[in-house]
Amino acid sequence: MSADSREASALDGFWDRAYRDGDHLEHWEPDRPSEELAALVALGVVARRETVVDVGCGAGTEALYLAALGLTVIGVDSSEVALGIAAARGREAELDVEWRHGSALALPVSDGEARLIIDRGCFHVIDREARGRYAAEVLRVLTPGGSLLLRGAREDDDEEGVVGFDGEELDALFGPLGFRRGPLVPTALVARSGNLASWLVLLAAPGR
Fold first, then answer.
1. Which of 41, 76, 159, 190: CA 20 to 30 A from 115?
2. How far apart are the first and last CA of the chain?
3. Shortest CA distance to 169 belongs to which of 154, 148, 189?
4. Which CATH superfamily is domain 3-204 in?
5. Strands, E, within 65-141: which ranges?
6. Domain ranges within the chain, ordered by starting residue
7. CB atoms within 10 A of CB 197
8. What value does the CA radius of gyration of the chain take, rounded to a whole number of Å?
9. Per-residue pLDDT tens over the stretch 47-82
10. Under 8 Å between Cβ of 95 and 62
11. Pair type for strands 98-101 and 142-153
């Protein structure tokens, strides 16, 4: 096993333990869908019969919300425990989401399958050195002109285990791939343990 594979396996084990122990409820699991996600749907950024991919879907709060609106939803997470929780929630709510185990750096999604990708806090736990692979995967998976709704930390926070980002970094990663970036809007990712100062930004993939 390579050093990268060992590191990925250890990280997956961390997330599995966190979901098994219920840490997600305290530190990052939202208790309701975000207002910005509701606004995107209301504005018609994604429509019924189009596919949304929730990267780092966790226990499925936002994926299930979108499924309840009639959208086709794929939830991707590296934690099989998280996906098990999400699937149980989906069965209880009688909502259909396709849960897929995989990495944000190698998404188990076909080329051009998604009209919208949503990311609430996945990007900011990826090391800066690997973020180019993330951007390339987003481009591969989106339809031409599709969108990425990205929400993540403004600054590094060792205690929370996050690596912040700014507009300059996003432009360096996504600009050469042809993405158009909207403004970075200051917001907060809300959890029971406190609020994490974050950015909200919409990136549009190149069209045909």
1. 190
2. 40
3. 154
4. Vaccinia Virus protein VP39 (3.40.50.150)
5. 72-77, 98-101, 114-120
6. 3-204
7. 13
8. 16
9. 888 999 999 999 999 999 999 999 999 999 999 999
10. no
11. unpaired
